[in-house]
């Protein structure tokens, strides 16, 4: 393995923060184990294609960072700020994203199978073709989100949506209810009413009323 690389990989762009740079460089010299980036400022870094399996990004700043095509299996990103981040085609299987910020982030074609998203601010997020199978989506703000062609599998789907939430081509099944915000008012949709609303948005998601 060459100096300063990990399994032949190194960041395309390091963050500006000196502490974060030092932590990354130390980790790159190791042969195994996840990155401890708890609370670090990694904003603007290009970490695309990196293997961050079982890493810790708890409360870290990843605003406008790139993690496109990155592997984050079983990582912890609770409370992390990923606003504007690029996670295109990233593997987020079993990742903890509770209380994270994903405002205007890009997760197109990302794999979030069995991921945990509780209390996530995902306003304006792009999740086109994203896999949400078995994920827990509780109190997620999906207002103005692009969920076109995304795939669900009996997900808990207690989320906030609005008339700008895009669902065309979305498929699978979810457990509601959702909160629909419209012109300053909000109402809860569940069962047939939720399924009809999804259908009017071009989605083919079945709303179920019980477990598997």
Q: What features would you highlight for this structure?
A:
single chain, mainly beta, 5peptide_repeat, seven-stranded mixed sheet, Pectate Lyase C-like
Number of helices: 2
Number of domains: 1
Q: How much strand content do the residues show?
A: 15-25%
Name given to the CATH architecture: 3 Solenoid
Mean pLDDT: 94
Q: Tell me roughly what share of residues is in helical segments.
A: under 10%
- Radius of gyration over all CA atoms, rounded: 18 Å
Name of the CATH class: Mainly Beta
The CATH topology: Pectate Lyase C-like
Low-pLDDT segments, ≥5 res: none
Largest sheet: 7 strands, mixed
How would you spell out the order of helices and strands?
A: HEEEEEEHE
Counted beta strands: 7
Shape: elongated
What would CATH call the homologous superfamily? Answer: E3 ubiquitin-protein ligase SopA
| Terminal CA distance | 47 Å
Structural class based on helices, strands and sheet pairing:
mainly beta
InterPro entries: 5peptide_repeat, Pentapeptide-BTB/POZ_domain
Pfam family, one: Pentapeptide
Protein name: Pentapeptide repeat-containing protein
What do you see in this structure?
- The chain has helices at residues 18-28, 191-200, and strands at 116-118, 136-141, 155-162, 171-175, 178-182, 185-189, 204-208.
- By secondary structure, the protein is mostly beta strands.
- The chain has a single domain, classed as E3 ubiquitin-protein ligase SopA (Pectate Lyase C-like).
- Strands 1, 2, 3, 4, 5, 6 and 7 form a 7-stranded mixed sheet that branches.
- A hairpin with a 2-residue loop joins strand 5 (178-182) and strand 6 (185-189).
- It is elongated, with a radius of gyration of 18 Å.
- The termini are far apart.
- The model has no long low-confidence stretch (mean pLDDT 94).
- This is Pentapeptide repeat-containing protein.
- InterPro entries: 5peptide_repeat, Pentapeptide-BTB/POZ_domain.
- It comes from Streptomyces tuirus.
- It holds the Pfam family Pentapeptide.
């Amino acid at each position: 393995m060459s100096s300063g690389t990990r399994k032949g990989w190194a960041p395309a762009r390091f963050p500006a923060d000196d502490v974060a740079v030092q932590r990354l460089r130390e980790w790159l010299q190791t042969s195994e184990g996840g990155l401890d980036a708890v609370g670090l400022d990694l904003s603007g870094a290009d970490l695309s294609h990196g293997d961050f399996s079982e890493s810790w990004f708890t409360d870290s700043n990843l605003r406008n960072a790139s993690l496109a095509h990155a592997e984050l299996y079983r990582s912890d990103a609770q409370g992390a700020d990923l606003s504007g981040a690029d996670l295109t085609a990233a593997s987020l299987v079993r990742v903890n994203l509770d209380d994270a910020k994903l405002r205007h982030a890009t997760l197109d074609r990302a794999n979030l199978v069995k991921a945990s998203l509780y209390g996530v601010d995902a306003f304006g997020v792009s999740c086109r073709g994203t896999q949400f199978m078995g994920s827990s989506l509780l109190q997620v703000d999906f207002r103005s989100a692009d969920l076109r062609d995304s795939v669900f599998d009996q997900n808990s789907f207690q989320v906030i949506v609005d008339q700008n939430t895009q669902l065309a081509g979305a498929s699978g099944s979810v457990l509601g209810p959702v909160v629909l915000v419209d012109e300053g008012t909000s109402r809860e949709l569940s069962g047939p009413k939720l399924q009809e609303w999804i259908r009017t948005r071009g989605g083919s998601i079945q709303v179920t009323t019980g477990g598997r």
